[in-house]
Fold this protein.
Amino acid sequence: MNIDLIMQNILNPPILFFFLGMLAIFFKSELSIPQPLPKFFSLFLLISIGLHGGYELSKSGFDLYVFKALLLAVFMAILVPIYSFFILKIKLDNYNAIAVAATYGSISAVTFITGITYLQTIGVEYGGYMIAAMTLMESPAIVIGLVFVALFTKKDSEEKKNTSWLEIFKEAFLNPSVFLLIGALIIGIVTGEKGWNSMEPLFGALFKGILAFFLLDMGLVAAKRIYELKKLGFFLIGFAIIMPIINASLAMSFAYFFDLSKGDAFLLSLLSGSASYIAVPAAMRLSVPEASPSIYLPLSLAVTFPFNISLGIPLYYYFINILWG
């Protein structure tokens, strides 16, 4: 792989702020971000990508190509947690295998945002409908995880009977990040170019700056989780690096077969190779309390997330560039 691709990605200010956050923990600096602010940063980023995606979708319209891209996104979101579960069962009990599989079946919005920033930096175009693809990929893994709980765990029948499916589906489809993204996407579609132009000074021009703050906080959080990795062993740490590459490669193959554009194929691959650390962990805590957050959270946050935003992004783009030319 061309070293320039790696450096182009890593020497991006928001990515460097992520590593700065990690260094602050390693060197025991007292750097911290007051707790209400990270929530504001995530709200800002979700509104920004939703509005922009809606505006782009209003320009491109909904045709067979868009339908194909969205269908592929949903297919990957269903497929990944299923085969991940059976791989994880080699080393984990059913509860933890389900929770980790669901985590890797869902997606990371911040990884997606970083991927978009990378495409913008190298001047590769992508479709705004990929924002819709991202929102569609967030929830299926949660539902599949819950179906697997019913099929593969030894919860007694009374406990299964008391499972609140309403709460589960509410968590899957109405969790705050999905709700806000879909809402902002619809607002972007309805208001179109006029709406985006009026919001662009805030949600366009300040995007990278807020992303830098957000990634600084993510670096602080990820570094704190690194110490938990010692307990997990080589199999799971290897899974957290190799499985994203397998998932991204599979998505890349489908994208090539279905003739998606280079930018769309890259984003689909990146989404398929990412892992959730917000929506799915929240859902698993609610519905699979037997699974340990000390397994699925450090894997997604302290291994897969840093891998994807530093090496994964240029790696996936490198192979896409070879295939697409």
Remarks:
- The first helix runs from residue 3 to 10.
- The mean pLDDT is 85.
- Residues 83-151+175-324 form one domain.
